[in-house]
């Protein structure tokens, strides 16, 4: 067999191997997509952050597989992968310096999803801003305020301190010092009983005596709620508190100053 024939043979073999690698890639990609869809279908109640994590993991596997297939194809066509990777390393270092903020967003976005910091639909507190996460990807997060529906867009690199808001919600109810102890507690229990009927309130109880202030004793009403409805629930429960205090003939205490003149 002549040299030309050998060259053509190996070239044909390389093309065949490359086409085979591409076929394998798309076959595995199809199976991964089908597996992801099946997992979601079999777990309809899966938490949003778990879905996001799975999506990211499957996406990374597809990317890694595609990268390996590309390297194999290049090797089949006689391209030196080692020198190519070295060149990519230098280029990547230069690009990394120019895209530091972008890369920080990507890294932090991955940490948010992989570590389950929060997910779309949950309520978080970022600084003084509290709201529902309405969108989150590897680059940015959007939070809608629970007070006025304004939307805050934050780059993921800045989300180093985010608090996921609990569903436990307390309201302290002030009572006068001269009001009988049992009368105060019974009144708060009535408030808790009515608060259970407010939409978004899962449970409400008298947690106990909270504090002894200068002009009042506070009793803590503890509720478990949907944090997205905190503003509305606070207003509705405050109205119930006013009604029950009036019904119980209990005056809402306030700070007073006594002035004595000789």
Indicate the overall shape: elongated
CATH topology of the largest domain: Helix Hairpins
- Strand pairing plus helix content: what structural class? alpha+beta
Multimerization status: single chain
Q: Helix content range of the residues, please?
A: 40-55%
Secondary structure tally, helices = 6
In this structure, how is the largest beta sheet organized? Answer: 5 strands, antiparallel
Give the terminus-to-terminus CA distance: 127 Å
Strand order of the largest sheet: 4-3-2-1-5
Low-confidence stretches: none
Mean pLDDT: 78
Number of strands: 8
CATH class label of the largest domain:
Mainly Alpha
Q: How much of the residues is beta strand, in percent?
A: 15-25%
- What number of domains? 3
Report the radius of gyration as a whole number of Å. 31 Å
Sketch the topology as an H/E string, one letter per element: HHHHEEEEEEHEEH
**Architecture of the largest domain in CATH?**
Orthogonal Bundle
